[in-house]
Amino acid sequence: MIFALLVVAAPVFLIADNVLTRTESVFLILIYVILFYFIEKKKGLLEVNKEKKHLKEKHLLEESLEFILATVITFLASRFIVNTTVDLAEYFKVSSFMISVVFLSIGTNIPEISLAIRSILMGKKEVALGDYLGSAAANTLFFGIFTLLNGARINISSYSLRTLIITLFGLGVFYLFSQSKKEISQKEGKVLLLIYLLFIVS
């Protein structure tokens, strides 16, 4: 849990100087690989997948076509979202980074929100918690990959020390709440929501 949260928080530390270099992007990819290695070593995820692999060949083509179609739709939707984000930033005279943090982040987490709601309704809260950590850690991986593919350092002028402090504070509170009773209560959820609102207005 602690190392997973460190992986999630790594980009927050690295962009504290308003710059993310290619060397730092490699570091982000590396720590995610390390995290995956330890999880796989402990849980044996790859072996489990091998044991459960029973997909018939006649279903393979169907699954492949669905994957390709989903990839194309995602690409087209992403292009639209990026263009809309830039337009909104220009209209409201704010940085595209802040628009992305506030609005885009919610949109990209809709699948996680949906899964979390279904998991809670089914009484499997640990699934929702695992999905959150897994998704957040994967963002670190993608952040590193896309920065590396960009071919140059990324400058983030809108990032401030106050944002860094609030983000780390939120992660710390989340860790304490999740470890207290191995679950997050409604009151603790409200506290986390208030921290997020504080993050937005900061």
TrEMBL record:
The keyword Transcription belongs to this UniProt entry's keyword annotation: no
Entry keyword set: Membrane, Transmembrane, Transmembrane helix
N-terminal signal peptide: none
Cellular component annotations (GO), alphabetically ordered: plasma membrane
GO molecular function, one term: calcium, potassium:sodium antiporter activity
Sodium/calcium exchanger membrane region domain location: 67-201
GO biological process: intracellular calcium ion homeostasis
Keyword Transmembrane helix (UniProt): yes
Localization per record: Membrane
Domain of life of the native organism: Bacteria
UniProt cross-references to Pfam families, sorted A to Z: Na_Ca_ex
Principal cellular location given in the protein's record: membrane
Segments crossing the lipid bilayer: 24-39, 60-82, 94-117, 129-150, 156-177
Membrane topology term: Multi-pass membrane protein
InterPro entries: K/Na/Ca-exchanger, NaCa_Exmemb, NCX_ion-bd_dom_sf
Name listed for the protein in its UniProt record: Sodium/calcium exchanger membrane region domain-containing protein
